[in-house]
Amino acid sequence: MKSLFKIIEEVKAKGENSALCIIVSTSGSTPLKTGSKMLVTENGEIFGTIGGGNLEKIVIENATTLIQKQESALFNHNLVQQHGMCCGGTVSIYIEFIMRPDKLYIFGSGHVGRALAKLASDLPFEVFVVDERKKELDQMKVTDVNKVPLAYNEILPHLPFNPNVYIAVMTYDHQIDREILAYCMKKEFAYLGMIGSKRKVEITKKMFLSTQLFSEREFAEIDTPMGININAESPEEIAISIMAKLIEVKNNKHNTIKNKKPETIFQEHYENT
Questions:
Q1: pLDDT 10s digits, 185-237
Q2: 3-state helix, strand, coil in the chain (%, to 5)
Q3: 177-192: per-residue pLDDT in tens?
Q4: What angle do CA 44, 127, 215 make, to 5 degrees?
Q5: Cα dist from 243 to 121, 151, 152, 186, 240, whole Å
Q6: What one-character DSSP code corresponds to residue 152?
Q7: What is the CATH number of domain 102-254?
Q8: Where are the domains of the chain?
């Protein structure tokens, strides 16, 4: 039988959000005791149990709601009064929202792309570097990076886009950059940025607005020139400026999760069970 925590990693690898429900305390007669766990995925799959019956039904509903809200919370249950269960005890259940991993798509494996991938591989990003130039990809020695030796138009239709996706566009060709940008602007993402000079950015903006396919507001959502202004010069410094921006966006986004409870309860029971 698979470990529940192995299943959690598999669910995260599939790009799904989920919620881990843990019995953190009990009093009196209860179906299961402290430390029992159940995982609920956003696609409705259930792994494990916290006791069955009406209690479990309500907990699954609570977990589903929290997944949608991207929140965690502690619930107290009186089994007789709230659930009509004969056990007669009380149960406290902490539901921990588990976010799918943040993905970083880097289009272009030139000097800055390789430097950015190296930095991102040491942070909580699942990194994909897309470039049809295999020789450029082969220069990337970082092991924890997914190398995609395909043209952008081959891979884009197959990439998942969601609010946990970060996109950095920095290919060898301005027109390719614009085509990738135009495609991604209509998708869901946490961050979309394009490298370039102020002149490149102004030309791109004029081209996009002239088509009337994109609004001023949509273009304003793009981080371009990409990164935080630290007067970066070398590829490594430019990569650091971009990485700093990605971290800022990621942490601001994650900090908007409401009603986040201290994780000490979860950590304590993770370690003791």
A1: 999 999 999 998 889 999 999 999 998 888 888 888 899 889 998 888 899 99
A2: 40, 20, 40
A3: 999 999 999 999 999 9
A4: 80
A5: 11, 24, 22, 23, 5
A6: H
A7: 3.40.50.720
A8: 4-100, 102-254
